[in-house]
Amino acid sequence: MIAIIDYDMGNLRSLENALGRLGAQYAVTADPQTIRQADKVILPGVGHAGKAMDNLAARGLPDLIRSLRQPVLGICVGMQVLCRDSEEAPGKPCLGVFDAHVRQFVPDPQTKVPHMGWNTLGNLEGKLFRDFPKEPYVYFVHSFYAGLGPDTVATCRYGGLLFSAALKYEQFYGTQFHPEKSGDTGELLLKNFLAL
Amino acid sequence: MLAKRIIPCLDVKDGKVVKGINFLGLKEVGDAVELGRRYAAEGADELVYLDISATREGRGTFAGLVERVAGTLNIPFTVGGGIRSLDDAARLLDAGADKITLNSAAIARPDLIGEIAGKYGRQFIVVAIDAACGPDGVWRATTHGGSVPTDKELFSWAVEAQERGAGEILFTSMDHDGTGSGYPCAVYARLAGLLDIPLIASGGAGGVGDIAAVLTEGRADAALAASIFHYGTYTVGAVKRELAAQGIPVRLKEPERS
Prior knowledge:
The complex is a heterodimer. By secondary structure, chain A is α/β, with parallel strands linked by helices. In chain A, 23% of the residues lie in helices and 29% in strands. In chain A, the strands form three sheets. In chain A, strands 2-1-3-4-12-11-10 form a seven-stranded mixed beta sheet. Chain A has a three-stranded mixed beta sheet with strand order 5-6-9, with no helix packed on it. The longest helix of chain A has 12 residues, at 183-194. Chain B has one domain: TIM Barrel. In chain B, strands 1-3-4-5-6-9-10-11 form an eight-stranded parallel beta barrel, surrounded by seven helices. Chain B starts with a strand and ends in a 13-residue tail after the last helix. The relative contact order of chain B is 0.14.
């Protein structure tokens, strides 16, 4: 069973639909016991990283998430809150699983913010990307990004900047893009995660 | 590299697609879910479903349709038509829509943009502007499908919408829409230069050359089209291959994996 952590950070419908299409059993939950016992855990999130940390804290989840031993996948803001800190939440530490800072894109004539649409991945590493085509397109919607670091397992280029499209530390994974919206490529990534 | 997006638009009335269903040979004529699935399979980057129902019953049917679309598609989709309040937006979000478009309602009550963005984030809101160029050379927004003129000047309204929380601007020239004569690229380029958020071009494409022009000269980030896809002039895949041949970055369908 997959636990999708429900902490009031955006609509989970598309993620549920994507897992449903793959035939996965899942529960949308904030219950610590259910999360701890799940085979895999997904931390989704759309919105503000500071609010995401507040909502996790209000449900008593930060320590629990850090202590999980099963595969965990953070998506979008879910990935960002697994990083050390975010410019979106100054002075507020995030979960600190990934060794990365989250910064804000600065708009210029070549760099619209949010970074929205289909962009290509590079430097893919690890099982999450098994059977991936070379330079696959995936769907992004975000105004903040994690810089490159030791945990980077996929990169993406936007506005002259190379950032972390995916992170991995031990059994924690994170994608800045939305696999549940990334067509067949995204479906393959979710399938690879389910197979871990 | 970030791809330029190609976005087919489907007009839906009482739960059925009302335009351009002739060529597809679908079993269930007008099935909006099946048509969307077909476009996605051809390589559409996103879809827009526009509800043109005039009745409450029709709108109810649309929400049900949005749920079925969300269950089927694995690409983002936007819904629009008749969204007047935060509640309307919430209902469509809960049904599974990734984004909504606001048009007349945003002009009637600009605060609505901020209310929805504050609750769901700016990535959820596309502000659509239908504008026409007046005899004085000033572009002004219109409402109700171009039938009602307003005094909102296009460029300042687009920037205001961005400041209020729009995540994208969808601009249609009512002088070009439905003519197949191409887009006013200079107007798009000026708009793109003023905005920090993505700009979607809509209305006027007669062929791939027009789409290529608005994505390059016009500096638009995406092109939305209805007629050229619905009437079978081009498939989404054919448009994207031709754009790619012209050196425009687009997401082509991946080769089959083993």
